[in-house]
Amino acid sequence: MAFNYVTEPGPINIALFQVTHGLYILTAKHDSKLNGQCIDALMQVTNAPPRIVVGVGNRSLTHDMICDTGRFCVSVLDRENPTCGEVVRRFGFQSGRDVDKFDGFPYDVNAQGIPFLPDAVATYDCTVVPEMTVNLGTHSLFVASVDCAGTRETGEPLTYNEYRKNLRKERS
């Protein structure tokens, strides 16, 4: 069977939906302001020292907060949690410039006061390595040291593909 090759951005994006990766809540704190957003661009880049890279839109409040503080936290969403869809909508479909995403939402904070989701599969407390940050125009890639990580004994990470399938089911 032959591939249907495409060159237009829309069809290329459909093909890119075949890339498998997780869904995460990226959080930051600046002064007393808390914010977070849903991301799917995260990967481990080294294990000694432990480092990850996250891709963050340059126009987001979370991006600005990370640039100002050099710190962030990541919560790995649990696919077994029935509220995952609500969490993704809260952190992914509204701007922290317009609403307080943590208002009425349960969260804990790490030693730096950065929020994380207590029902996450894992959390990573991170410090940006500034000389390794790359501006891609619309997004920045932040390489960060994982200073501390926490895991639970239960749960499974939610993948972006699973979330999209569930979203289609909800819409039909």
Question: Concise description?
Answer:
It is built from 4 helices and 10 strands; from the N terminus they run αββββαβαβββββα.
Question: What does it look like?
Answer:
The chain is an alpha+beta fold. The chain has a single domain (22-171), classed as Pnp Oxidase, Chain A (Roll). 22% of the residues lie in helices and 35% in strands. The protein contains four helices and ten strands, in the order H-E-E-E-E-H-E-H-E-E-E-E-E-H. The protein has helices spanning 9-16, 61-69, 84-92, 160-171, and strands at 24-30, 33-39, 42-47, 50-57, 71-76, 108-109, 115-116, 122-128, 134-135, 139-151. The strands form two sheets. Strands 1, 2, 3, 4, 5, 8, 9 and 10 form an eight-stranded antiparallel beta sheet that branches. Strand 9 (134-135) and strand 10 form a beta hairpin. The longest helix is centred in the last third of the chain and has 12 residues, at 160-171. It starts with 8 loop residues before the first helix and ends with a helix.
